[in-house]
Design brief:
This protein has 490 residues and is mainly α. The chain has helices spanning 2-28, 32-38, 45-71, 74-92, 98-126, 132-157, 164-171, 175-184, 191-196, 200-210, 219-231, 251-269, 272-285, 291-319, 321-346, 354-374, 378-386, 389-421, 426-443, 455-460, 464-468; strands at residues 472-477, 480-486. The two termini are 34 Å apart. GO terms for molecular function: carbohydrate:proton symporter activity.
Length: 490
């Protein structure tokens, strides 16, 4: 199991890569030497372009990451993505022009798309079934393991009186992908990929060693292998790089896609985009204008968010995916209503009410904490669970595409619109979060307590959401696996 945790840790590092950049650019955007060197401002169309080109690279990469991960496997998919990210870092860090800097960010985004597809797929397929929810939930919490060093690196280099103040943190971006490339050489391939490529003996050995404590006849190995044989086609659409029709060719496929796309947009448009990328701007709006203090607030929020996301990863198995999402999203409506009110009252230049400003900061923190607990663990876990094996890599590529379409809005539209309407933009978040609650209640299925193959039964039902609320039973006796079915049958 300790070896297995090492392999999963290597996959977790793919999430660090994205987290590092997400926190890095928010801080660099506020640094005077960066602004002076490239003639940039904190907000505006130029800033929006630099932020959004990373997203554009991610969108383009979304069409390649599925085939990469299906053709060569999950671990080599991670290797390919990490190598592209290192190339992007080597372009961005020594950049001598805005065009070169922007090009490096495009390459980074392209590589991250592959890592964001191969990484969570590897974790979900390689984790022990009893801990899949917690371990795959932990994958996305490592966004903060990347984000925390980024914010503290910026806080530490901010005092350097040269361009090294922003170049050095960018060079550090090569650390996580370098570790991924090295670690992938020691990782086994996932049993599901091996079965789908007709390498059954290798798949059984991997499951026996890391899931069955060396016993090929372990019930968990027998059950999982039998379900793989029943559900995974060796001639599925994952063998055809151009074939995306299984994502759209049936009612069950459309329901799966609704859950996947819903999670993609909800994870980006709940209000976290403003907090993650533009924390310094928000703080400036409510009276915290000193650059070093803004960076400190951003760094502290990342540490707290990581702790809450880690706790949330454990609760997705205890409470269930739907409960966590419904409660968390409902609280978003409350928090943004309060933040909007406080910013309207105390977010003016002439404001001298420090208690009002501090209250607004506190609720921005509370929103970030709630988001980290409820959404961060599920952003990788939920879409992976909702996709069948044959469509998992391409489906995660589609998920990544929609995430970045949503993120493009965050990184380009928000700074542009913010200049015109300021805090009134928060009303959009309030209305959208209300819509999210309704959508989740009626369409999102519960995936807790099932193997990846058993989840397929949910989407074949006439109303998958209702089917998913019924408990699933597996009966194992000394005569083997006798039956499995719904609780109501017993």
């Amino acid at each position: 199991m300790f070896k297995l945790y090492f392999f999963l840790f290597v996959a977790f590092l793919n999430s660090c890569i994205n987290g590092y950049d997400g926190s890095l650019m928010g801080g660099i955007n506020a640094m005077k030497y960066y602004q002076t060197y490239f003639n940039m401002e904190t907000v505006g169309s130029g800033t929006g372009l630099v932020f959004s080109v990373y997203t554009v690279g991610n969108i383009v990469g979304s069409f390649f990451c599925g085939p990469f991960t299906d053709w060569w496997g999950r671990r080599w998919g991670m290797f390919i993505g990490a190598s592209i990210i290192i190339a992007g870092t080597c372009t961005q860090a020594p950049a001598t022009s805005r065009a070169m800097f922007t090009g490096g960010r495009f390459i980074l985004g392209f590589g991250v798309a592959t890592c964001a597809t191969a990484g969570p797929s590897y974790v979900a397929e390689m984790s022990h079934p009893a801990w899949r929810g917690t371990l795959t939930g932990l994958y996305n919490t490592f966004w903060f393991v990347g984000g925390i060093p980024a914010t503290w690196a910026l806080y530490g280099t901010e005092h350097i009186e040269s361009d090294l103040s922003w170049r050095l943190p960018i060079w550090f971006q090569a650390v996580a992908p370098g570790l991924v490339m090295l670690g992938c050489l020691f990782c086994p391939e996932t049993p599901r990929w091996l079965v789908s490529n007709d390498r059954h003996e290798e798949a059984i050995r991997v499951m026996a060693r890391y899931h069955g404590e060396g016993d090929r006849n372990s019930p968990i190995v027998l059950l999982t292998y039998r379900e793989m044989i029943e559900e995974i086609a060796t001639e599925g659409s994952d063998k055809r790089w151009w074939d995306y029709k299984d994502l759209f060719n049936s009612k069950s496929a459309w329901w799966r896609l609704s859950c996947v796309v819903g999670m993609a947009f909800f994870g980006q448009w709940s209000g976290n985009g403003a907090v993650s990328y533009f924390m310094p701007v928000l703080l400036n709006q409510i009276g915290v204008k000193e650059e070093r203090t803004q960076l400190l607030y951003n760094a502290i929020l990342n540490v707290i968010s990581f702790v809450m996301a880690t706790i949330g990863a454990r609760f997705v198995d205890r409470l269930g995916r739907r409960v966590v999402l419904l409660v968390g999203t409902s609280l978003f409506v409350v928090w943004w209503t309060i933040i909007t009110t406080l910013t309207a009252l105390y977010g003016t230049e002439e404001n001298d009410n420090t208690y009002g400003s501090r209250s607004a900061i506190a609720f921005i923190y509370i929103f970030g904490i709630t988001y980290s607990f409820s959404y961060t663990p599920l952003q990788a876990l939920y879409p992976v669970e909702c996709l069948s094996y044959e469509t998992r890599a391409k489906g995660m590529g589609m998920y990544n595409l929609f995430v970045n379409i949503a993120a493009f809005f965050n990184t380009y539209a928000i700074p542009t619109v913010w200049q015109r309407i300021k805090w009134r933009f928060y009303f959009v978040y309030i209305a959208w979060d209300v819509f999210e609650v309704v959508f989740i209640y009626f369409l999102f299925v519960e995936t807790k307590g099932r193997t990846l193959e058993e989840i397929n039964e949910i989407f074949e039902a006439p109303y998958p959401k209702r089917k998913s609320m019924q408990k699933h039973i597996v009966v194992i006796t000394d005569r083997g696996i006798l039956d499995k079915g719904l609780e109501e049958h017993y």
